[in-house]
Amino acid sequence: MANVIYTPNDILEQEFKTKMRGYDPIEVDEFLDNVIKDYEAYNKELLTLREENDRLKAKVEQLSKAQPAPSRVKEAAPKSSAVTNFDILKRLSNLEREVFGKKLDQQASAQTSSDFGQNYTQDESDIEKTRQF
Predict the structure, then answer these.
(1) Per-residue pLDDT tens for 1-44?
(2) How far is CA 57 from CA 6, 47, 52, 53, 65, in A?
(3) Cα dihedral 55, 61, 66, 70 sign
(4) Which intervals of the chain are annotated as region Disordered (predicted)?
């Protein structure tokens, strides 16, 4: 493993000098024991992940060898004989817009003019009522 300074065994065998007012040696040993456990767990996880990575790389290589390489030039299907759903929907949309669009425009203009007449007469009746007072 690259960039590893201490092994679990190095941590276990490390001795510290004791001084008059130093750390509690029992507490330090317990902490270092926990550090060793974590260190070993990380090593196991690292090995497991490396094995899985190697297995997946081998599987990718195997599948890429089994599958023929896609050619860069695709065979062009004749466009005149191949009508896609998109083309059909586009044509249908254009026809609907042409047929129904004109009817909708006529109905909208008729509705707008009748609404304008009603609003205009209502305004005059309001004026007449105001004049009576």
Answers:
(1) 557 778 888 888 888 777 777 888 888 888 888 888 899 999 99
(2) 30, 15, 9, 6, 12
(3) positive
(4) 104-133
